[in-house]
Amino acid sequence: MSYQVLARKWRPGKFEEMVGQEHVLRALANALDQNRLHHAYLFTGTRGVGKTTLARIFAKCVNCETGISATPCGTCQTCEEIASGRFVDLIEIDAASHTGVSEIREILDNVQYAPTRGRFKIYLIDEVHMLSNSSFNALLKTLEEPPPHIKFLLATTDPQKLPITVLSRCLQFNLKNLPEKRIVSHLAHVLDAEGIPHETEALWEIARSADGSMRDALSLTDQAIAFGQGEVRTADVIDMLGTVDRQVGRKLLASVIGRRREDALKLCHEIAQRSPDWSHLLEGMAELAHRIAMEQTVSGIVDDALGDQDFVREMARNASPEHIQLIYQIALAGLRDMPYAPTPRIGFEMSLIRMLAFTPLCPTGIIGGEGSEAASNDSGTGSEPAVSGQPAAPGDTEAVSQMASVSREEFSPDAGTPDTSRAPATAERTNDESPVSSQAASPQRDTVPEAVEDAAEDTAASPDASLDMSAPAIPEPAPAVADPADPDAWRNEVSQDDGTTAETVVEPSEPTVAAMSMSAATSTPSGGAVQSDTVCQPAATMPAAQEMDDLTRFWLDLYGRLPLKGMLASLCKRLALVRKEGDTWYFLIDPEHGDFFTALHRERLAGALSEVTGSSCQVDVAVETHNLMTPQAHEDIRAAERQAEAERIILQDPCVRTLIETFDGTLIPGSIRPDTATGETSHV
């Protein structure tokens, strides 16, 4: 007798012999036992999961000579004929080779005739999605109202291609891919019954390559038996499949976790001699990282089915959870980018180098995180100092005060007579609109003079407010300030570093603004509670932002009234007004943006100024590094204040505090946003 392949020899003949698909078996068994049979069934799923097998078992159940039940006898003539494919009333149709409407009509012409041997005439249409639209149309009426002796069993791997009219006429059962553990268990049972020696790890390699298909797994097992001369060994299976031993993946991952760069790259070079599947190897490392992460999360949850339990537990003890997560993410990114790499080996090696090069940082940016202090020590000398809610050191406070107190008399002739007429109104607005100043003052804020409170809110005047050109007035400077014969003399004055230059106002960079927006929250001794009454204050910028002179306030207010759009509006946001002489306005812009400010932009800015002020204006812009206040810097500072206030409010919320205390939680930086639509910091 000729050899019969395992996939055919071990094809189930009863529902009890099926591996997996319990959700389908339960529904079919109940329907058969209660004799509640539908006239059309649709089985969907990937190849080799049991669609055709289920259909044939169902045909046995309804035509068995012992009666309709979920347990056919398997010994009667009908059951034997169905098992051997000789039953006359089971018509199997390959839709891939019978796609024409004429062939379907010819088949349907025989529907009216009663079955020859069995109770039902069963039409088993495999790969039904291959039928043409005309064939589906011809089938619809019969599929909806077939004769009582007809049952339709449809099978497909692509149900999306079926018309909705066909789907609505069938009971649909989706067969799932089989898990690797079930495949390994069944393969071990088959090989034990066949008397073939095998290794468990070899079966895992086969199950992994089968990708959820039992038929593929049995076919690969047949191939492995032939390759290994009657045995299924791990080394033979790895060579046959072109994969890499799992032990190699473990060594690679251990080298990555241990920072042994030379060992990892040498091992990678050795693996390359066998021309492996590099994506398969990277997938194996990702799976190992997943198992280690699971063990770190719940100790003892990882079993020893793959023979790596000891390795997983050792790595879980030696590696930090953050490091394992980083390795997993790099592996996923490497798999995603593998098709775009010059060669698969290069793609794998670059992923391996990333794993060796990058180290997860401690959560310095997480509010209330326990690792904040340690992270600040590991971040290096070049990093920004961590923002905290503790009082500033005396030296720091003095430095901030000195930086904020530099005079701007050279560019503001009336700086010696500050305008105090607006102080009361400004103070009222400050109390109403700035909860950061009135409600959440930290010890660091105590070092700022009270007079500073006035000007900060003054600069936030609405752009829709009417522009009063007389308040504050822009007085004409003394003729001796600059030589009229030298129109560029004012640039030299601005460049002089004689201690009497403009008020020093730091224009915050993006990292600075991000740091300012961080609320200082410290953990209690228990590690859970968060001190939410301390709010980070941008000490290096807030005093300077509030100690603005009349010229700066005038420019900030005027900018909001200018009809500017697009690139011109963006560039003008970075202009600092230093002087106004007659109809000429003198500005400074930093070199980073000055290269983009052209003569056309000057003309358009002059036109906008003329339109708002009602008089002809000229504009002179000097490109120089400066520390003067600009609309952009003021906007960044205000945004940082709103962000800090929003985070303070969130941390004071009772529900948030309960969550943090109960689950040892942290507030992720950037996850809180103030309500910029209303402009109220109390909306988050």
TrEMBL record:
Extent of Polar residues compositional bias: 433-445
Low complexity biased stretches: 511-530
Family classification: Belongs to the DnaX/STICHEL family.
Subunit structure: DNA polymerase III contains a core (composed of alpha, epsilon and theta chains) that associates with a tau subunit. This core dimerizes to form the POLIII' complex. PolIII' associates with the gamma complex (composed of gamma, delta, delta', psi and chi chains) and with the beta chain to form the complete DNA polymerase III complex.
Renumbered residue ranges of the record's region Disordered: 369-533
Annotated NCBIfam families: dnaX_nterm, PRK05563.1, PRK07994.1
SMART domains found in the cross-reference section: AAA
GO-annotated molecular function: ATP binding; DNA binding; DNA-directed DNA polymerase activity; metal ion binding
Keyword Nucleotide-binding: yes
Superkingdom field: Bacteria
Protein purpose: DNA polymerase III is a complex, multichain enzyme responsible for most of the replicative synthesis in bacteria. This DNA polymerase also exhibits 3' to 5' exonuclease activity.
GO cellular component: DNA polymerase III complex
Pfam families: DNA_pol3_delta2, DNA_pol3_gamma3, DNAX_ATPase_lid
The AAA+ ATPase domain, residue ranges: 37-178
Organism of this sequence: Thermohahella caldifontis
Protein name, per record: DNA polymerase III subunit gamma/tau
Gene name linked to the record: dnaX
EC number: 2.7.7.7
A Gene Ontology biological process term: DNA-templated DNA replication
Alphabetically ordered keywords of this record: ATP-binding, DNA replication, DNA-directed DNA polymerase, Metal-binding, Nucleotide-binding, Nucleotidyltransferase, Transferase, Zinc
Enzymatic reactions: DNA(n) + a 2'-deoxyribonucleoside 5'-triphosphate = DNA(n+1) + diphosphate
Keyword Ribosomal protein: no
Top EC class, one word: transferase
InterPro entries xref list: AAA+_ATPase (IPR003593), ClpA/B (IPR001270), DNA_pol3_clamp-load_cplx_C (IPR008921), DNA_pol_III_gamma-3 (IPR022754), DNA_pol_III_sug/sutau_N (IPR012763), DNA_Rep/Repair_Clamp_Loader (IPR050238), HLD_clamp_pol_III_gamma_tau (IPR045085), P-loop_NTPase (IPR027417)
